[in-house]
Every structure is written in C-alpha cells, then in structure tokens.
C-alpha cells in the first residue's frame, strides 16, 4: 500500500508528497521540513506524519496555528485515507493507491469479474478493515450488512456496516459516500449512534460505528404482536428522543430518509432511544431515489415513506423524516400502519382515498393531544406537518407537560 499526501488548497495546491514506512514526513515552510510550503501561517516545522506498521498518524510539533483533522484541533491522531487535514491556509488530504482510495469500481474485480454479492460480504467474518476486526454477522438489509466487530486500538466493540456494492458502483458514488462520512464524523449526540471511522478498502465502502447493546423497535413490534400496542407515554418518550436526533440532523442539513422501527434502537442500560443509519443518509441519496422510482420495486418498509418521497424523491426534506417518525408512532399505537399497502401503486391509491383513524379514537387511554400530534406528523401534505423539527420538539414539550410528563430539554434549548 503506497501512501501520499495531496495539497488540495493553499499556496502549494497540487503538490504531492509520498509517505514512507518508518520515516516521518515533516510538514512546514522551513528549509528543514520535507515540504517547504510557502504558507506564512505554517510554522517552520508544523507537524509530522508517520507511517508505522501500516497505520498512519499525524502529530503536531508545537506549531503556532495548530493542526486540524476534519476541523478538530489535535495533538496526535490516527489518519485514514480521505481524511482532511488543515495547517494554516494549507489543506491536505490523505490518499493511498491500493486501499481505501483505490479507483477500482466497487464490487468489480480488477480482472473484470463479477460484482461482489451480498453473500460474499457476509464471508468477511474474521478479516480486518482498517483497525477493526470483523467478528460476526449481525444483520443484513437493502443497503448493506452489519457486523459486530472489535476496535483493535482500544478493545471496544463496534458495529461495522459495509455498503451493498450495488449502492456504490462507480467513483462518483464512492466519493459521495466519503463526503457524507465527513459530515457525520463531527456529530456527537446522545440520541444518534456515533460514527467513529469510515472509508474504502478493497473496493468496499465501510463505516465503524458505536456498538449499542439494545433492541430495535422492529423487534419490539414483533414481540408485542400484530395487534399489540404501547402506552402513549412510551411513544411520547420515543418521539422526544428521535425528535432530538432529527433536530441534530437538521442542523447538519441531513435528511435521514429511512426513519423506521428497524433504525431506532432502545439501549438496554438506560432505555434511551437512538437513531441509527443516519451515517448513510446523504451517501445513498441518489441510489435511494432510483430504487423508489424503479418500476415494480417492492420495499420491505414501504409504508414509512412519505407521499412526496414516492412521487419525487428529490423533494424529500426534514418534514419527510417527520412523516416516517409519525408512521412509526402510529404503528406502535394502533398495531398497524396508517396505509397497509406493500406495493407503491396501491400505497399511492390508499393515500389519496383513505383517511386513517386517530389513535385516540380506538386506543384506550390514549392522550388526545398526543394523538393530534401523531396525525399532524403523518399529514399527506408536507405543509401540514411542522415547519422545523425544533417546532415539533416544542409541541412535544407542551403535550408532555399537559399530560404530566417531563423531559430534560437542555440538549436542544
């Protein structure tokens, strides 16, 4: 594997410097540096990049202006291909020519063979991606497979998701994946599953995320049965937690596009609810649009798609995520979705002709105000929903107080 740094912005834009195992690359403007970049904001020796047994590290060496990785000042940090490093007015990226940044089309052997299948992805157990050992397969879905793994740097459990090769079949889509990962890396929120690292290796797009010991809402729905329901107070708590997650996503200009029971986890230790798969929202934007509009497609959780996402996926915004959250709450309240179709044409017909019953009309003891909130979320017209997720949270606070429920709102106020 051959590593190099590429200057993408600043006085030395376009210059490249190779990185050699065991020989630190000294970056700076002085004659004693290996780069001699004519950037007055650089120190004479600003930082050094070291390749140690295949792992790449950057270390600041007492520079005046600091060394920043993805906008965060660091003293020392491990780097992966695609990482963004800022020194003064000089911005560099990390590349290799035989790993995370290889330009081989995803899922295609260099010899021109067949695309890798999902079954081949599942056979990765026992292998290592970056610093993460893949231990066992946890789940498989439309967008990829999820493994439980081990971070060999600190011994912590991680969830490793590898994107379905069909969702990233060319360089443009792979680059979109990397850009999406860069948006997600700085996001830290108690109701969002944290992204640790991501990249490309051997033609595969991967992400290592926080491991959550818990249960998905999909599993909870399966446990309580088709006609089983949850108390409205439990649903209110779900709405608060996932509403907070969506508000954080809105701040980062991310639309999830797949808020379903499968992607909401209840953590065992504190019964908090967390939103997962936000990491792939932006990366799958165009692939998602194509799959929804492809004639004859059947989707396992079609009922959670907002009408506008079906008719014109490109128009999806934060209100589309509100709709999906509303359907999730409706299913937990009523035991069935507001529109039960399993095919796009039938679903559109049901949306245009049927009016779902409010949860308070049939669920005994269901709070009227919270019922109205759920029905507003699943409004057929996006204009009938909340203008922003912040407005949804304010209404949840109001409804909770009137119903005798309180929450700590410090994270979003």
Produce the secondary structure layout.
Blueprint: E1 3-9, E2 16-19, E3 25-27, E4 47-52, E5 55-60, E6 67-69, E7 72-74, E8 76-79, E9 84-87, E10 90-96, H1 118-122, E11 128-129, E12 132-140, E13 144-151, E14 157-163, H2 171-184, E15 195-201, E16 204-210, E17 214-216, H3 217-224, H4 232-251, E18 264-267, E19 273-275, H5 285-293, H6 307-311, H7 318-334, H8 344-353, H9 359-362, H10 368-377, H11 389-402
Antiparallel strand pairs: 1-2, 1-10, 3-4, 4-5, 5-8, 6-7, 6-9, 9-10, 11-12, 12-13, 13-14, 14-16, 15-16, 17-18, 18-19
Helix pairs in contact: 4-7, 4-11, 7-10
Question: What can you see in these coordinates?
Answer:
The strands form four sheets. A six-stranded antiparallel sheet has the order 2-1-10-9-6-7, with no helix packed on it. A six-stranded antiparallel sheet has the order 11-12-13-14-16-15. A four-stranded antiparallel sheet has the order 3-4-5-8, with no helix packed on it. The termini are far apart. Mean pLDDT is 82; it is low at 97-115 and 288-300. It has eleven helices and 19 strands. Helix 4 runs antiparallel to helix 7. The chain has helices at 118-122, 171-184, 217-224, 232-251, 285-293, 307-311, 318-334, 344-353, 359-362, 368-377, 389-402; strands at 3-9, 16-19, 25-27, 47-52, 55-60, 67-69, 72-74, 76-79, 84-87, 90-96, 128-129, 132-140, 144-151, 157-163, 195-201, 204-210, 214-216, 264-267, 273-275. Strand 6 (67-69) and strand 7 form a beta hairpin. With 413 residues, it is α+β, with helices and mostly antiparallel strands.
């Amino acid at each position: 594997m051959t590593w190099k740094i590429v200057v993408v912005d600043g006085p030395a834009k376009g210059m490249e410097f190779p990185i050699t195992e065991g020989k630190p690359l000294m970056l700076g403007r002085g004659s004693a540096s290996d780069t001699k970049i004519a950037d007055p904001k650089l120190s004479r020796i600003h930082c050094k990049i070291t390749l140690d047994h295949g792992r790449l590290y950057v270390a600041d060496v007492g520079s005046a202006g600091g060394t920043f990785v993805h906008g965060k000042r660091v003293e020392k940090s491990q780097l992966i291909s695609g990482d963004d490093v800022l020194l003064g007015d000089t911005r560099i990226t990390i590349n290799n020519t035989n790993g995370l940044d290889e330009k081989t089309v995803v899922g295609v052997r260099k010899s021109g063979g067949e695309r890798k299948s999902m079954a081949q992805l599942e056979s990765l157990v026992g292998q290592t991606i970056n610093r993460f050992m893949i231990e066992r397969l946890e789940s498989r879905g439309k967008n990829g497979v999820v493994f439980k793994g081990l971070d060999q740097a600190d011994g912590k459990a991680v969830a490793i998701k590898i994107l379905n090769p069909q969702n990233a079949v060319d360089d443009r889509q792979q680059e979109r994946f990397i850009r999406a990962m860069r948006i997600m890396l700085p996001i830290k929120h108690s109701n969002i599953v944290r992204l640790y690292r991501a990249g490309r290796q051997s033609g595969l797009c991967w992400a290592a995320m926080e491991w959550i010991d818990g249960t998905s809402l999909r599993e909870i729905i399966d446990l309580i049965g088709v006609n089983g329901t949850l108390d409205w107070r439990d649903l209110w708590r779900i709405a608060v937690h996932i509403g907070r997650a969506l508000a954080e996503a809105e701040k980062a200009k991310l639309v999830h596009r797949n808020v379903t029971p499968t992607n909401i986890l209840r953590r065992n230790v504190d019964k908090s609810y967390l939103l997962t798969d936000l990491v792939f929202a932006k990366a799958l934007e165009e692939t998602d649009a194509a799959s929804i509009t492809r004639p004859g497609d059947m989707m396992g959780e079609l009922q959670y798609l907002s009408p506008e996402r079906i008719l014109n996926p490109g128009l999806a915004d934060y209100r589309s995520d509100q709709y999906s959250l509303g359907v999730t709450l409706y299913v937990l309240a009523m035991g069935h979705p507001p529109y039960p179709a399993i095919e796009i044409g039938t679903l559109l017909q049901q949306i245009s002709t049927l009016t779902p019953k409010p949860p308070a009309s049939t669920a005994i003891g269901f709070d009227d105000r919270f019922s109205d909130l759920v029905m507003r979320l699943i409004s057929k017209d996006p204009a009938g929903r909340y203008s922003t997720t912040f407005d949804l949270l304010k209404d949840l606070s109001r409804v909770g107080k009137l119903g005798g429920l309180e929450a700590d709102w410090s994270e979003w106020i």
